[in-house]
Amino acid sequence: MRLLESGEMYLETIYLLTQENPHVRSIDVCEHMGFSKPSVSRAVGLLKSGGYINVDKDGYLTLTDVGREVAVKMYDRHKLLTDFLVSLGVDSEIASSDACKIEHHISDESFEALKRHICK
User: Fold this and answer.
1) CATH number of the domain at 70-118, please?
2) What is the tens place of the pLDDT at every residue in 36-59?
3) May I ask the CATH class of domain 5-66?
4) Do 67 and 11 touch, CB atoms closer than 8 A?
């Protein structure tokens, strides 16, 4: 299953929520993202069938190894891009919003080059 931007966002959200509390349910994702229960339920079903998350009998969500890899990749991109834009003088809220848009579309090659340049 090819993962779309929305799927990457869900995985990143689950990852972030599990950093605060290891017991994450769909309702936590709803509240964090501001999405409806049916929307999150559909996304969870797709991510589960794609092998990106597991859902246990109590409804707790956990990332699979593949899901964690995608989530960490998106989070790392988001953090580096946000910090970079802030260092250029962009307001932190705008920087975070713009980084969120960029992180899903920038190629691995371009991101790695940017990362090398920033981390000199």
Assistant:
1) 1.10.60.10
2) 999 999 999 999 999 999 999 999
3) mainly alpha
4) yes
